[in-house]
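Write out the 3D structure for:
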Amino acid sequence: MSPSPAPIAVSALLLCGGKSRRFGQEKGLTLFAGEPLAARVLSALDAISTDVWVSANRPDMYAQLGRPIVKDLHPDGGPLAGLHAALLSIRHDLLAVAACDMPFVSVTLFEHMLTLARERDDWDVIVPTQSHASDRAPAERLRYQTLHAIYHRRCLTPIAALLDRGERMILRLYDQVRVREVPEEEWRALPGVDARVFENINTPEDARRLEVPPED
């Protein structure tokens, strides 16, 4: 029997830098199913990495998590600034990123993306995609799940350039780097991935709705 491949080295980042305007309080510390949202997502990141960081612009509030905290170097730069600061600090070249308001972050999906990174090491971004249509845009289009993705340290230079130009959207990066999309039919075929994996909490009503298990 062939030996299993060694685990790929990866750092991880929990993004807690949002202003929580719609939520009305510090979102990452809000209880969800009996535990703070941030702690719930951290447990998933702990399953794939031993180098786990927290991006927070109010580090005093997140010191209780017992993790190294990185602050944005570009104020008001959004998640792109959090990603930039983390890529300057992490131990490994790969960084798994998850937002603190996504209670169904999937270890299985992250492990699948790390397998893709092992198979081909020149991907700069590995990101799940999801088909999406709305009343305003009825034609089906792809939604990139940028905050449940993997980024290589090679992204640091283009991210810094974007922030220097005042850009805040992570998607602006994707035009400049090598991106491996994980399409919906691929990640949905993985065992145990919750259909709500990319649901995020913006309001207390969202939290109450998502705490109710879906009907079979």
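The longest helix spans residues 107-119.
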